[in-house]
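Morning!

This is the sequence you dropped in the shared folder:
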Amino acid sequence: MVEIPIVRVEASIHDSQSVARAGSVEVTVTEPMEPGEGVSPLELFLMGLASCEASMFRIIAGRMGIGFESVRVVVEGEFSLGEGLRRLKITYIVGGGVDYSRVIEQVRRLCPVYNTLRRAGVNIEEEVVAG
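The structure's back. Tokens below.
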């Protein structure tokens, strides 16, 4: 098992918005969402999963020697105040005309964000689409 170093982020309030920082990257976070003024905390949460899945796909496909033209990971979540995440759907859109089931199986096995959610009991619906 590969250990991941401690991950640290922070957020602070500036005027009426939160600013989240990870390393040298700052993101304006708004809630409720005002169009064009940033992203909501829930979108950041889902972006973390989508970007982890896409990165893991690239790494694992490369290690397996499996080429691909493109990869998009679309994550949809349904949330409820007081309950949290109620529904989660991940769609892998992969271009290249090859069966990527082995790659996606390894992504599921190794992605730390995916596994954090799975171990928390989140029901994850998944779909693979040729793109």
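Headline: Strands lie at 10-14, 17-22, 25-29, 70-80, 84-95, 124-130.

More detail when I'm at my desk.
O.
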